[in-house]
Design brief:
2 copies of one chain form a homodimer. Chain A is of the alpha/beta class and about 375 residues long. Chain A is built from 13 helices and 17 strands. In chain A, helix 5 crosses helix 6. Chains A and B meet through strand 15, helix 10 and strand 16 of A and strand 15, helix 10 and strand 16 of B. Chains A, B: It catalyses: a 2,3-saturated acyl-[ACP] + NADP(+) = a (2E)-enoyl-[ACP] + NADPH + H(+).
Chain lengths: ~375, ~375
């Protein structure tokens, strides 16, 4: 199973003040930043910045409790991801940096520390996640627009579930909802089934009474993985090696007999993905949210013309950009109610007493194991 | 330009009666038939059958005036096309064949000879086309259900335009209408632009004030082809060779500047098609209706995820299956009003005095030049 790394960057304790801060600051914060894209091992550095003044109108001060280190975050730093962060000239309002920086991190669980005037529906202590992409979550505390956060339902999520709820669970949830109307007993086909999204797909599908056929790579401990996914609710788990078995089409047909498969979720691409489309019925939708094989999606044109296949992509970032605050909060309520299993994870705490160089090294080590 | 072949199978003249027919028949008809799929040169044969008795209730007797020989018709005979004709045990009600046959041909202009009781909205002399796929149009006359024909508007179409209106023009019309809402000045990108559908796309797009970027294969007389397509209304005509020119993206961007391309029509597949998708804006739809290259449609997954590309197929047969009689007739009225240019064609008349063997050879020759 993929193990998630979560970063904790608590504010520096008061005895560190003298070392890092001007006398006017009460606490000091940390951020993992870079000034130009490139190899994260080279470009990332840790930066100390003063505590935040009270937030301006319609803004919030938030403390970031836990921030995942996602593969896409690394791609952003490398400069190869379509979403780009903005350069920021100040990490604490009123305190200009000598040189603008990018702050790493997209996803996080944050807690509201202080609410500016004019903010409605949010209060101190509320848990929130970022509605704005590339918000720079690898930091201790930030001042943000009230419209850039989504409030989480109170007391329903663990800290780890809350910190990892922004990207993967909603990707799974929306892909299962937005493309094909599925009812109890209908089937969903997916690859990369042990990815974070894939595991969420299995759980959400099972909660709706949908059946899943899940493909994963073969591996020495395949039976353990199959059991883990079955425990999450997977109906069948197969490996890409099974695709060379000609009898598999017949088997799948027997399973799905009176309900041809109309939804396939893909994060792999390349040949195995094309082979999987032969299990689809007419009028099916193939939704891609990743390309782990780095191969293009090569499909027979006849599948589009004669089987009426439709191929889409899904990007949760676009979903946030095109949906209202109310829709976002409704989505979070729906996800919280599902009580998804916490992803396998480790929490890496960058402590206040570490020097910037030590913090950088710890962050580096974490990314290597991610 | 592709030249269409159209088959004319007039009824046999009365002096042929004695040779082919029982004494009770007044005229005799011809059909191009086969009993098993395979190489058309081997499996096709011509068959003579008696004239039709009056049609039963809710049926029509029709005379087939002109029937195209389409590439898909050949694929049907070869057994490699998804739509299969039904075996028929009788070409004239009440007269059983010794062995059931498939009758070739899908598309035709027919004229109503006689109307059975209970048929409404159709009368002797009306021009009709086939609403049912694989109706066996390579024949002189047939008895059909009234619901299996679509009435054409009177006096608006030439015989050739009417005979070729069932498949290609509606494919073009519907692809331009059903996937993206396009307004005057919007752009459409297509390949195979000198195909029958491609030429219809150019004309229909021009009639709606849409601009087209059209790709064709390079050839010695490319300037003549470019002029022909421009005369039909093409905005720009390029060859697949032009795709290797890196500056082309910039050129296309200049052309389409404030209106990124949101619709691409594809009948080719393979690498040039994938290269063309780089000209598309976000939220574009790629609609495939053919695969002349016989290569799969291989697209970068990132185009689906980050540009929100959606890939569909279009098959006019499915459209007919899923639309009402009123919708079909409205489509024909819309197409007739467009006054599309007659496709380049030759009419092959299989005369009554030809023997079955001669008729078969003539049909063979025609297909070779199609």
């Amino acid at each position: 199973m993929l193990r998630r790394s979560l970063l904790r960057l608590p504010p520096l304790p008061s005895n560190a003040r003298a070392k890092f801060c001007t006398s006017s600051t009460k606490f000091a914060n940390r951020a993992i930043v870079y000034t130009e894209t490139g190899n994260p091992a080279t470009v990332l550095t840790a930066l100390t910045y003063p505590s935040l003044p009270p937030p301006p109108p319609n803004s919030l001060n938030i403390r970031i409790r836990l921030a995942p280190i996602n593969p896409a975050d690394i791609n952003v730093i490398e400069g190869v991801y379509p979403a780009k962060p903005a350069l920021t000239g100040s990490l604490s309002p009123g305190q200009e940096l000598t040189k603008p920086v990018y702050v790493g991190g997209n996803e996080a669980l944050a807690e509201i520390l202080q609410v500016g005037s004019g903010v409605e529906g949010l209060k101190k202590g509320d848990w929130v996640i970022m509605a704005k992409q590339q918000a720079g979550t690898w930091s201790s505390a930030r001042t943000v627009d009230a419209s850039d956060v989504i409030k989480l339902p109170a007391d329903t999520l663990s800290e780890v579930n809350a910190a990892t709820i922004t990207v993967n669970p909603p990707t799974a949830y929306n892909m299962l909802r937005d493309f094909v109307e599925l009812g109890e007993g209908d089937w969903v086909l997916q690859n990369g089934a042990n990815s974070a999204v894939g595991q969420a797909v299995i759980q959400i599908a099972a909660s709706r009474g949908l059946k899943t056929i899940n493909f994963v790579r073969n591996r020495p401990d395949i039976d353990a993985l199959k059991k883990q996914l079955s425990d999450l609710g997977a109906t069948h788990v197969l490996t890409y090696d099974d695709l060379s078995d000609k009898a598999l089409s017949r088997t799948v047909k027997q399973w799905t007999e009176d309900r041809p498969i109309r939804l396939m979720l893909n994060c792999v691409g390349g040949k195995p993905t094309a082979q999987m489309t032969r299990f689809l019925g007419t009028d099916a939708h193939l939704v891609s949210y990743g390309a782990m094989s780095k191969q293009p999606l090569a499909l027979p044109t006849s599948a589009f013309i004669f089987k009426n296949l439709v191929a889409h992509g899904f990007w949760q970032s676009r979903w946030y950009d095109t949906h209202s605050r109310a829709e976002r909060e409704a989505l979070m309520h729906a996800l919280a109610a599902l009580k998804l299993k916490e992803p396998e994870h480790e929490i890496v705490t960058v402590l206040g007493w570490m020097s910037d160089v030590e913090a950088k090294e710890k962050n580096q080590k974490t990314r290597d194991s991610a």
